[in-house]
């Protein structure tokens, strides 16, 4: 059934969302139970009230949720600036350039034309005009505010509806086409700052005098971007309108409904795509002469493989986050099979590497191994750096500008393996400081070349994949996976990233008690992601905000001084 | 805001545009647009002078790059062999410095930030404020369809050296096919078309835009003073679109040099191999040159490669950046042969860029005569991340205000002098540019005509 009508009455919409069958091959999402019940956490912690720019993926997801996934349009909006480890946090500081708005405009025109074309209009527009060649204010007034509420994430004020209906009418008359009129009005909504700028607003908390909380629509939006990476649907907006969202029971009901929705998968994918730096896939290229098996399809499927594994493990099976780094269960596709050396199936198939296989954990996925390598060779340093920065939230210092590379310049020497090469760094005290931080665990991945293929030798010399991670030694990559699994920073890093992602900006000093609380809860619930998401969504700090201080505008620009 | 009709009247939009009915205007042809000398438009207004940048990553090797001879007729060096055909059209400026002052040398970052913004970044997160192309665009770019066009040949949308402010990089075009559509797609108005047909879609969009602008006020009322600046920026973007729509409703001035190119059939392989980057660079360049010739923009940026360039030499295990650090200096040659291979590829593309502007006739010369292109890089000698000995090129004659064919010794002076020279040439009136040691009030006077 082709129904995406999120502007239907709440009861219908709720039924659609809550009763949607999980995707084939995936177990139902975990339902909340009494043992999951959590408190509001520290009551003296708030999160900042923010203005965020909508990301490309949030825009796409929102439109797909409203109009259906068969809409054809291209949203390659510019990436946000990675801040505090996440691109998503960049939305809280990003501006919108002229060229960006041009892009929004082009995309808006495509989307509006798609929604109103003869194929889609029959089921996306809830009424028919009296005459398709004329304006029809009644039908326009039915469609535009309903869609506008979903795009703007709050109901339109009457003046907004009136203006849109008027514009639709004038355009319909000009082009003698009711649907053309609707398209232009819709196009306008899609470039409105109400759609693309997420401006949180707050109100006094009636239960806690002297405290501010997000208003109900802003809270619904924050929840929805957090869990679904999309704007809120009709059910959520209804709950905001009725006040249900701010009753303890209502909030729990809505959060659990959202966690049970298939849309959680989009949210979880978006988060990990961001946290693991998968935006690097956009430019991942390997030297075709060195790695002929590594193609564009390999790169695309490598990203998908890891995301599928994450969703299956964390959401469908409610697995322990730490086990991601030891599991042999994954999915493979035709494009990945040659590099993994496994039989090619049709499309994506679940696959478990045999016991004793070095392919344990997502560190041994092509996604991690190939992205953090050079185009023509592996890199223990890049891999070690990525492990520390992406998974443990540690900062590896940048190399000094006056670094002397002469030790590793060795064209005709007997050096064969990367271990021998990086060991040269350790002889130089200037290099050794940082390379000791990155190389010992990166070397444990040396059984995988720069494309992610398994190998036991390099230029004819056997590979020694031993290493250590913060005091834990191991002899191979399986040991590295175990050491990482048990590393105390692994779960705390995830907690910090998830919390800052959810609250829309980098966690600050003031967030510390909240992070401590979340770490305790995460451990107490067995390091299950849905439980962590729920704890955050139910916390006081997630809805109580510190309104921004009024500050003066930014510093004068060169332009303002040169004229 | 002015009413819709008032705006139209003010802009003297031709009658009969409603419903897109055509207005046929007898237009003169090609050089008849120009005055008798071919140096100005027929109505006496001078041909526009434009500002552009071109970026390549990872500098050069001075031993085989820097000519020994200064002034005119400098000898072609090994790494600049590809520039033989454009020697008379460019200036080579060597031995300039990007001063880091008390800050750390942020590898592959400090050098270009200083040249684009005039100031030294304190940290990697310290993004440039308004970059020079934006400053110049605010002076000369307001009347064209695009205030600024920015493109990259790397295929990576993150490769940009243009910033509206610290949090707003200018989005580069990275796909030739998308770039073509933006420039010459349905919204392009051929300035030389015999028939002018105002676009009824533009009129409708403009009207809708006025409703959208009311939404800006609503959002603005809900945000803090600091965030208000970001909402204002959004409003300025909407006004930019409004201006573009106005232009679609107004008969454009004829541009003899404007001969729209054919649409690229495809983007080509998006990998980082030097040949792929080169193919992409040439497609993007051809589009950019024609965008300038058609007066779609007067400010343009092109990045051939990135700072920390990851361009690949087929069959060689290290990308360009890693190569500059890890390849030994060849005892016999006295330089890093593979690193130099990458520099030579960059110079081939710089030559292509310059030639592309010189191939399009404009007035009694070429478009190149009416541009000032400022080519820069992130380091002098990338192997050691040097910020001195920086090479810079200029190309074009800036409407006759610039000499070309010279090799100039910067004597270690600030690289910002070239940017300051550009500002002055483009009509800005600031007496100085840059901060601390990068502050300058001295143009590179040797290249001024």
Query: How would you characterize the largest beta sheet of chain B?
Result: 8 strands, mixed
The proportion of residues in beta strands of chain A is 5-15%
Q: Give Rg of chain A in angstroms.
A: 26 Å
Helix content of chain B: 25-40%
Query: pLDDT under 50 segments of chain A (min length 5)?
Result: 1-35, 551-555
Radius of gyration of chain B using CA atoms only:
23 Å
> Count of helices of chain A?
25
Helix content of chain A: 40-55%
Shape of chain A: globular
Q: How many strands of chain A?
A: 12
CATH architecture of the domain at 49-175 and 267-447 in chain B: 3-Layer(aba) Sandwich
Description of the structure:
The complex is a heterodimer of chains A (563) and B (449). Chain A is built from 25 helices and twelve strands. Chain A is of the alpha+beta class and 563 residues long. In chain A, strand 8 and strand 9 form a beta hairpin. Chain A has two domains: 256 residues, no CATH class; 204 residues, no CATH class. In chain A, helix 10 packs across helix 13, helix 13 packs across helix 14 and helix 18 packs antiparallel against helix 19. In chain B, the strands form four sheets. In chain B, strands 3-14-4-13-12-2-9-5 form an eight-stranded mixed β-sheet, with helices on both faces. A two-stranded antiparallel sheet of chain B has the order 1-8. Chain B has a two-stranded antiparallel sheet with strand order 6-7. Chain B is globular, with a radius of gyration of 23 Å. Chain B is an alpha/beta fold and 449 residues long. In chain B, helix 5 runs parallel beside helix 8 and helix 8 packs parallel to helix 10. Chain B has eleven helices and 14 strands. Chain B starts with a helix and ends in a 24-residue tail after the last helix. Classes of the chains: A alpha+beta (563), B alpha/beta (449). Chains A and B meet through helix 4, helix 7, helix 8, helix 9 and helix 25 of A and helix 4, strand 7, helix 6, helix 7 and helix 9 of B.
């Amino acid at each position: 059934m082709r129904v995406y009508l999120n502007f239907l009455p709440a009861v219908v919409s709720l039924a659609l969302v809550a009763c949607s069958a999980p995707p084939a091959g995936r177990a139902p999402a975990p339902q909340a139970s009494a043992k999951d019940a959590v408190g509001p956490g520290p009551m003296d912690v708030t999160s900042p009230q923010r203005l965020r720019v909508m990301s490309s993926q949030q825009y796409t997801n929102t439109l797909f949720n409203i109009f259906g996934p068969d809409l054809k349009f291209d949203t390659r909006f510019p990436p946000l600036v990675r801040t505090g480890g996440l691109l998503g946090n960049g939305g809280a500081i990003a501006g919108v350039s002229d060229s960006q708005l041009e892009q929004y405009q082009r995309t808006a025109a495509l989307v509006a034309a798609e929604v109103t074309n003869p194929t889609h209009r029959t089921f996306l527009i809830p009424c028919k005009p009296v005459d398709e060649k004329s304006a029809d204010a009644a039908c326009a007034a039915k469609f535009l505010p309903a869609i506008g509420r979903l795009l703007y994430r709050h109901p339109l004020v009457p003046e907004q509806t009136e203006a849109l209906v008027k514009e639709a009418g004038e355009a319909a008359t000009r082009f003698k086409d009711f649907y053309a009129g609707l398209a232009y009005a819709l196009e306008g909504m899609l470039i409105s700052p109400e759609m693309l700028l997420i401006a949180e607003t707050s109100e006094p908390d009636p239960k806690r005098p002297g405290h501010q909380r997000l208003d109900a629509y802003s809270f619904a939006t924050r929840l929805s971007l957090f869990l679904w990476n999309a704007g809120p649907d009709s059910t959520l907006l209804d709950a905001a309108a009725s006040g249900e969202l701010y009753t303890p029971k209502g909030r729990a009901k809505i959060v659990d409904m959202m966690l049970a929705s298939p849309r959680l998968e989009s949210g979880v994918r978006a988060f990990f795509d961001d946290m693991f730096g998968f935006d690097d896939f956009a430019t991942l290229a390997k030297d075709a002469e060195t790695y002929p098996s590594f193609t564009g399809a390999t790169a695309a499927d490598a990203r998908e493989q890891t995301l599928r594994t994450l969703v299956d493990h964390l959401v469908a099976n409610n697995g322990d986050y730490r086990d991601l780094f030891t599991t042999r269960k994954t999915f493979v596709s035709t494009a990945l099979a040659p590099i993994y050396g496994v039989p090619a199936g049709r499309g994506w198939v679940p696959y478990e590497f045999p016991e004793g296989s070095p392919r344990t954990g997502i560190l041994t996925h092509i996604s991690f191994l190939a992205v953090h390598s050079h185009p023509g060779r592996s890199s223990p340093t890049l891999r070690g750096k990525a492990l520390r920065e992406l998974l443990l939230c540690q900062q590896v210092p940048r190399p000094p500008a006056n670094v002397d590379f002469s030790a590793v310049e060795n064209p005709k020497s007997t050096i064969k393996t990367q271990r021998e090469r990086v060991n040269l760094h350790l002889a130089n005290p200037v290099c050794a400081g940082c390379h000791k931080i990155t190389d010992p665990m990166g070397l444990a991945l040396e059984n995988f070349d720069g494309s992610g293929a398994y190998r036991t030798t390099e230029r004819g010399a056997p590979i020694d994949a031993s290493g250590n991670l913060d005091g834990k030694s191991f002899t191979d990559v399986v040991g590295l996976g175990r050491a990482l699994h048990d590393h105390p920073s692994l779960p705390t890093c995830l907690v910090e990233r998830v919390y800052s992602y959810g609250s829309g900006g980098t966690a600050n000093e003031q967030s510390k008690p909240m992070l401590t609380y979340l770490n305790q809860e995460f451990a107490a619930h067995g390091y299950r992601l849905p439980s962590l998401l729920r704890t955050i969504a139910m916390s006081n700090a997630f809805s109580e905000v510190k309104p921004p201080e009024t500050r003066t505008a930014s510093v004068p620009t060169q332009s303002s001084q040169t004229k | 805001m002015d009413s819709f009709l008032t705006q139209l009247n003010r802009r003297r939009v031709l009658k009969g545009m409603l419903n897109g009915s055509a207005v046929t205007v007898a237009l003169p042809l090609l050089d008849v647009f120009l005055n008798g000398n071919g140096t100005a438009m027929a109505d006496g207004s001078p041909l526009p002078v434009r500002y552009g940048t071109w970026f390549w990553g990872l500098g050069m090797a001075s031993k085989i790059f820097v000519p020994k001879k200064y002034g005119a007729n400098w000898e072609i060096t090994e790494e600049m062999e590809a520039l033989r055909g454009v020697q008379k059209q460019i200036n080579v400026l060597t031995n300039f410095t990007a001063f880091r002052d008390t800050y750390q040398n942020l590898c592959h970052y400090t050098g270009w930030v200083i040249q684009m913004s005039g100031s030294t970044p304190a940290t990697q997160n310290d993004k440039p404020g308004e970059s020079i192309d934006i400053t110049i665009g605010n002076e000369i770019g307001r009347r064209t369809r695009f205030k600024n066009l920015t493109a990259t040949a790397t295929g990576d949308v993150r490769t940009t050296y243009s910033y509206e402010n610290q949090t707003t990089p200018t989005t580069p075009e990275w796909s030739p096919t998308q770039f073509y559509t933006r420039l010459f797609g349905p919204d392009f108005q051929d300035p030389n078309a015999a028939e002018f047909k105002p676009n009824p879609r533009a009129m409708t969009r403009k009207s809708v835009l006025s409703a959208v602008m009311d939404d800006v006020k609503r959002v603005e009322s809900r945000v803090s003073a600091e965030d208000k600046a970001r909402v204002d920026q959004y409003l300025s973007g909407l006004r930019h679109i409004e201006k573009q729509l106005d232009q679609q409703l107004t008969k454009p001035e004829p541009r003899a040099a404007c001969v729209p190119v054919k649409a690229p059939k495809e983007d080509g392989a998006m990998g980082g191999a030097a040949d792929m980057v080169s193919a992409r660079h040439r497609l993007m360049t051809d589009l950019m040159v024609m965008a300038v010739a058609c007066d779609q923009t007067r400010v343009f940026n092109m990045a051939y490669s990135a700072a920390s360039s990851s361009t690949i030499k087929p069959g060689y295990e290290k990308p360009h950046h890693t190569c500059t650090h890890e390849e030994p200096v060849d005892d016999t040659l006295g330089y890093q042969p593979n690193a130099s291979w990458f520099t030579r590829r960059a110079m081939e593309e710089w030559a292509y860029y310059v030639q592309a502007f010189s191939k399009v006739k404009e007035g009694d010369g070429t478009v190149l005569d009416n541009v000032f292109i400022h080519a820069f890089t992130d380091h002098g000698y990338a192997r050691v991340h040097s910020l001195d000995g920086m090479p810079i090129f200029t190309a074009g004659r800036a409407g006759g205000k610039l000499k070309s064919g010279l090799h100039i010794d910067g004597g270690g002076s600030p690289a910002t002098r070239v940017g300051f020279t550009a500002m002055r040439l483009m009509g800005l009136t600031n007496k100085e540019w840059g901060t601390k040691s990068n502050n300058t009030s001295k143009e590179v006077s040797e290249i001024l005509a």
